[in-house]
Design goal:
The longest helix has 7 residues. Strands 20, 21, 22, 23, 24, 25, 26, 27, 28, 29, 30, 31 and 32 form a 13-stranded antiparallel beta sheet that branches. The radius of gyration is 23 Å and the shape is globular. The chain folds into 2 domains: about 325 residues, Glycosyl hydrolase domain, family 43 (Tachylectin-2, Chain A, 5 Propeller); about 150 residues, Jelly Rolls (Sandwich), CATH 2.60.120. By secondary structure, it is an all-beta fold. A hairpin with a 2-residue loop joins strand 5 and strand 6. About 0% of the residues lie in helices and about 55% in strands. The protein contains 2 helices and 32 strands.
């Protein structure tokens, strides 16, 4: 489970002190298509950590059902596992709570993972408890004989406690898998009491079993992290093994030709998006792989306020490059049907620059200044795509969206080839290669979310609730470029 972003005291002060276990989630009223940015229809409920799984043609997303932004049961979470499934990633079915709180000592059914084995599903998860010595975490598991929809907790419960070297408050998020030899494995997030280097105690506790019941500890696959490596994910994809883990919500990955390393640390950490927390993945049909995260809410609904736990679901399609590195792109099945709409007339202007629009192509020549072109009368929500074609080097290029008569009052979306970076207002991603060459840009504006993908490889999202202006400004600073094939699309607002 992702570490609470704000302090527990802050969250409790901002939430109802009496929040307990969610009992009023209604699967029947939830959105069953266009699952991107999903949260429960009930205004006080949110999605937390997501746990995707694929089995026999069905894609499962187990997710933490949250009330009050982690404030349930005295600030210990009070989370339970909800479930949504699909056979095509377009049409979804939602179910009642799959793994719920049933005992007084269970203060949260925390993040974990699922494995199907010998006709049954097994859910491994951490439970959070509190006694006079503080908060502790331990492992539990449950079995399902109805295809992973409802689970019965197994005995002993809990079945495993933190080893002596591990801080008992940091022992959670078990990842279960079975290797080619038939041996079962658990990777559990932990933090060592006495690390070799002070401040670098984060590690994965590694357990193995022959029967999913009796476990023994073996050598860790990952140590020496600056924080607890939460919500780990592990898989083989073609000839590469991957280990994903999240620190502070940001999801990193390492890769190897061998099952447990030695690991390579790729320079492009494509899963690190500030507003996409704890990515986990699952395979899908035709060799595809789907990544699922959650997007925290903004405190107080303000653009510059911090994140609070719990929010909306985010889906990406993972891309494996020829060298084994990972990228991400939009998952089209998770989006609603869209239709193209005519572009309004462009207004062009600039400071010591010129701009012109003809037949779908916007040209800006701004070698000695900044050139701009504006579209007026746009809706709050839309999707815009274009090809950005720079002519030589440039300083900055991009858009201001949801602006008013003064473009700087909108949200700046920036491409910067010299910094190899992309930005959406007050968040950004690094090591974005190829911005000095033609790239395809795809941007979705949906309610609080501004979501961008660059060339089908790199994604970035931000949560920005305040500005609602109807103007869009293209801009270029200190360079020449074209914005080709500008296409504006909308969807039926009732469906999404």
């Amino acid at each position: 489970m992702k570490t609470v972003i704000l302090s527990a005291a802050t969250l409790l002060a901002a939430s109802c002190a009496t929040a307990q276990v969610v009992k009023d989630y209604d699967p029947a009223i939830q959105r069953t298509s266009a699952i991107q940015y999903f949260k429960p229809a009930e205004s006080h409920l949110f999605t937390g950590d997501c746990m995707p799984y694929y089995h026999d043609g069905t894609f499962y997303i187990y997710w933490l059902l949250d009330e009050g932004h982690h404030a349930g049961l005295g600030g210990l979470g009070g989370h339970q596992w909800a479930l949504s499934t699909s056979e095509n990633l377009r049409d979804w079915t939602h179910y009642p709570v799959a793994v719920g709180i049933e005992e007084d000592w269970e203060k949260s059914i925390c993040t974990g993972s699922v494995i199907a084995d010998k006709g049954s599903f097994y859910a491994f998860y951490s439970t959070r408890v509190q006694d006079d010595k503080g908060v502790h975490e331990q492992l539990s598991y449950a079995r399902s004989d109805d295809g992973g929809k409802t689970f019965v907790k197994q005995q002993p419960n809990p079945f495993y406690f933190p080893p002596e070297e591990c801080v008992s408050r940091d022992f959670r998020d078990p990842k279960v898998f079975k290797d080619d030899a038939g041996l079962y494995h658990l990777f559990i997030s932990g933090y060592k009491k006495d690390p070799v280097i002070e401040g670098f105690g984060g590690y994965l506790c590694h357990l193995v079993s022959e029967d999913l019941k009796n476990w023994k500890q073996v050598e860790s696959p990952l140590t020496g992290q600056v924080g607890t490596p939460e919500c780990s994910d592990y898989f083989k994809w073609n000839d590469w093994y991957y280990l994903l883990y999240s620190i502070g919500g940001d999801t990193y990955y390492v890769m190897s030709r061998q099952p447990f390393g030695p690991w390579q640390y790729p320079p492009t950490q494509s899963l690190v998006e500030q507003w996409a927390s704890v990515y986990k993945t699952a395979p899908y049909k035709d060799g595809r792989r789907i990544a699922v995260a959650y997007m925290p809410c903004r405190s107080n609904g303000k653009d510059f306020d911090g994140a609070i736990w719990g929010g909306n679901m985010l889906l990406r399609e993972a891309v494996q490059e020829p060298d084994g590195t990972l990228d991400t792109r939009f998952l089209e099945e998770a989006l609603p049907p869209m239709h193209t709409v005519a572009l309004p007339a462009f207004r062009t202007y600039g400071d010591n620059a010129s701009a012109s629009y003809d037949s779908g192509a916007l040209s800006i020549n701004a070698s000695n200044g900044t050139g701009m072109a504006a579209l007026d009368g746009l809706p709050v929500n839309y999707r815009i795509t274009f090809e950005f074609v720079p002519d030589g080097n440039y300083d900055e290029a991009g858009l201001f969206v949801r602006g008013d008569d003064r473009q700087h009052r909108g949200y700046k979306i920036e491409l910067n080839s010299n910094k190899e970076s992309a930005f959406i207002y007050n968040t950004g991603i690094n090591t974005v290669k190829g911005l000095d060459r033609p790239v395809k840009v795809d941007i979705i504006l949906k309610d609080e979310f501004i979501d961008m993908n660059i060339d089908g490889r790199r994604s970035i999202i931000n949560r920005l609730p305040e500005k609602k202006g109807d103007k869009l400004y293209f801009f270029l600073k200190n360079g020449n470029a074209r914005f080709n094939d500008i296409t504006l699309r909308e969807w039926n607002g009732k469906d999404w």
